[in-house]
């Protein structure tokens, strides 16, 4: 029922605000495959979504490029960023060919200590994380960049200050050894507090959350919202999340619960 109410609300709000205007949307994916995990998007659904982004003529950029534009006060209107969390093997096997087919850039947040290992989800499903070799092949493409998602993927809010520092610094150093831009962090499991954000400013130019909404020049660069795309996301909801609808929806939620 809750999902239906949200879907109806987003449909209505998209009629009011069908475009991004002077804002941007950062999309957050995890797994692209046929497994039963909630956060997984089916391959055919993912391709339909990517095709929609191209046909709708969004300005598709890597996250590092969006951050650069925000920091230099450049126009970010109609920009969409595709991101993936955790670096699952299917990002390489299934998502990457689609990204290449449509020439869509993407940013992958990967926990560096889990590269080449298997992640067991809360539902007990085992999902392999890509290997160094897969990462290197993706990084040879101008389409893909890798950013830190901690080392162990542990919630930073459960760790002491020195351990938080090592999670932020060591993951950045490891990915930096591959070359490329490692200027943005995704807080593992979306957990952060004021102290964690303060520490992040010592290592990174920006940070992303799992809270929905749109990015504007007024955003705190270390608390950038992302719009989750998972198995429950209908195509109409997807379209709403790359329109002004998701921004209006979040504003209404804040008023309602304030």
Main sheet attributes: strand count, strand direction, barrel closure: 6 strands, parallel
Q: List SSEs in N-to-C order.
A: HEHEHEHEEEHEHEHEEHH
By CATH, the topology is TIM Barrel
CATH homologous superfamily placement? Glycoside hydrolase/deacetylase
| Whole-angstrom Rg | 17 Å
Structure, described:
The protein is globular and about 45 Å long. About 40% of the residues are buried. By secondary structure, it is an alpha/beta fold. Helix 2 packs parallel to helix 4. Strand 5 and strand 6 form a beta hairpin. It has a single domain, classed as Glycoside hydrolase/deacetylase (TIM Barrel, Alpha-Beta Barrel), CATH 3.20.20. The protein contains nine helices and ten strands.
Task: Summarize the topology.
Blueprint: H1 2-16, E1 24-29, H2 43-55, E2 59-60, H3 63-71, E3 79-85, H4 89-102, E4 106-110, E5 118-120, E6 126-128, H5 132-139, E7 144-148, H6 161-176, E8 184-186, H7 194-200, E9 206-208, E10 227-228, H8 235-240, H9 245-257
Parallel strand pairs: 1-3, 1-10, 2-3, 3-4, 4-7, 8-9
Antiparallel strand pairs: 5-6
